[in-house]
Amino acid sequence: MYFPHRVWTGVGLIVLAGCVTFPDDDSLSAVRDSVDETLGKEVVYRHDEQELIARVDDMLADELTLDEAVRIGLLYNRNLQAQFEELGIARANVAEAAAIANPVFGFAVLRPSGGGSADLDFGLVQSFVSIVHRPSRKRLAESAYEASKLATTAAAISLAGEIEVAYRIVQTDLQLAEMLRQVVDATGVGYEAARRLYAAGNITRLDLNREHALYEQARLALDRAELQVLADREAMNRLMGLWGERVDWQIVDRLPPLPEDVGLVIPGDVERRIVETSLELQMRAHRIDAVAQPLGIADRSQLIPSLEAGVGFERDDGERSAGLIGSYEIPLFNQGQGRVAAAEADLMREQNEYWATGVELRSVARAAHQELLRAHVRATHARDVLVPLTTEIVNESQRQFNAMQIGVFELLNAKRQQIDAGVQYIETLRSYWIARSRLQQFLNGVMPDADPQASAMNFAFANSNEGGH
Asked: Quick check: helix, strand or coil at residue 311?
């Protein structure tokens, strides 16, 4: 078999042009830098398992802080690790898109039916359309790769926000459960006093049943609260990726005090900040670019249909011959109009969705900011007005009870109202911290999920006091 030197040189250039290596830069560096800049925390990928477990166990050894809970989730959550694998796939697709289609080698051995020597045909064909479209394919894959990096960054930031909300919810659960234990104690004392008074004939059976009902309602509310603690702890375990012996952590069981200033952003600055930092808008912008690339490919495809060229070799009756071979698609019936129209419609759809996302972001962000402001007002009112007022009522009721001007039931009812005011303050404080966390997620570039239904409970005993003594 013989190929002219010039033919081999041409084939070699085609093959070398199609050889692509994976980029040697760290594809996760942009994600790490963005997360570190936004959260001040580290994310890792394909880490040493034993070293990671040691780091997690060290953070779980004592009281788990919010910062440590977020760090554990960023290190140990397997869904986040799966998102990193998606990034690796996108990175590999860039290398794949940069590669030129392999040349096709064909041959035929034909032996005449009447005998004689066989005819040999060899051919090596390369698609030149693949070479022409290579830059467009590469830009398309690079756009998807950039979008994947943004998606991975958003996943890490979103996970951190979810863990913060979950942490605040568990803190609320623990405080509410503690308050309800006080309610159970108070209503238990009231019921025991009512039993003694009833036995002495000083109150009616109806009065006794009212105190008994309050006590049983408080016990049921406490049981629900303790179950809610367990459920919300498990939700937090899932976010952190913990299981087995590592789920028995303890946290600071008090919500932080209410700050005097709402903080975070200036009211008129919310929309601008959120639009500038939105990773969702950045991803959609990359999708617009990605959709625009096939449009260009479709346009050029009308001018350059399927064109293949290569070298061929033939031996016939001992005579050898070699030369160029090729094929060309004639755009007679399908000139690519459908592909162009579909690409144009796809581009317009992505552009409209980009603007719709911007409108939604602005609206939801304004609502989140207003919710934060109102939550701060409610918590401030509960702290500065409601709690002091019920405390003053209890103090005055105690003085009147000591002077034998009111009975024990009136005093116990006042104390239950004080505890109920404390529960309301805890709930308003929880609402503030959750609203603050949600708005912070917006400012960090991600849109949080729908407002989480924290473990707020409608305590039956709260309204039952109207019928008490």
From this structure: strand
